[in-house]
Write the structure tokens for this entry.
Amino acid sequence: MNRISSLFNIQYPIIQAGMVWASGWRLVSAVSNAGGLGLIGAGSMYPDVLREHILKCKKATDKPFGVNIPLLYPDIDQLIHIILETGVGIVFTSAGNPKTWTPVLKAAGVKVVHVVSSSTFALKSEAAGVDAVVAEGFEAGGHNGREETTSMVLIPAVCEKVKIPVIAAGGIGSGRAMTAAFALGAEGVQIGSRFVATPEASSHINFKQAVVNTREGDTMLSLKKLTPVRLIKNHFYEAVKAAEDQGVDAAALQILLGRARAKAGMFEGNLEEGELEIGQVSALIHDIKPAGEIVKEIWEEFETVRKQLGK
């Protein structure tokens, strides 16, 4: 066991990212039961919905699991209350200042990990008292760092700066990529896109199929004047690109984005007008298969490649 496996008391240092509209209790429990760490994606959940998913996940697995919370969530205090009330022992935070809630969570015995896109934020997270950081590269899906630093550069840069364990994310969907992340200094991997293409993910089948059909160059980082997000190219993306090319301001982009655009795309399956968040690694995903099989395949390939390189 390495520091990440020991920290979370899991068999494999493989973490399923807490993705909006994908990471409900079915996916989370499947990953945790397979020996990884599943994370409930609270970013797309009302407080009562989060409580329901936590309770159902506890019934579906006796293994560790956690919750991912975007710190900019409007009802963050309610989410924190539910996490403490239900006894969740692991929280991954993102999109905000870790100083705000880390002391509260740590005082309750919760293990805290913060997602960062630069070594500067990694150092601030370490100073805030988190147990580990996720170094998420530019290749990742969903909301992304403004620095646009790739995983190949970001992971060793963060590992060089902090003493706490580093989990690699962004562009990782196989055991071979996991081996590369470990070679760069990571002690665990967080994987999102690959787990979208599973029967257990709560995403719409249309979105899952779109992920499988995605090829190189089909995703782009967009909406940089708001919060950068990687999207599959569709009618909505083209409308955003046209507006950005015309130099519209953030307020105009916010109007174009509207409300519930991500829900429409990823949860309701509107492939033209919805926001389809996925990583570049989607170009390497060719099938929909059970989450437990994916965990097993990634670990077995990781072990095989390590042995091959050792020779």
Observations:
- The mean pLDDT is 96.
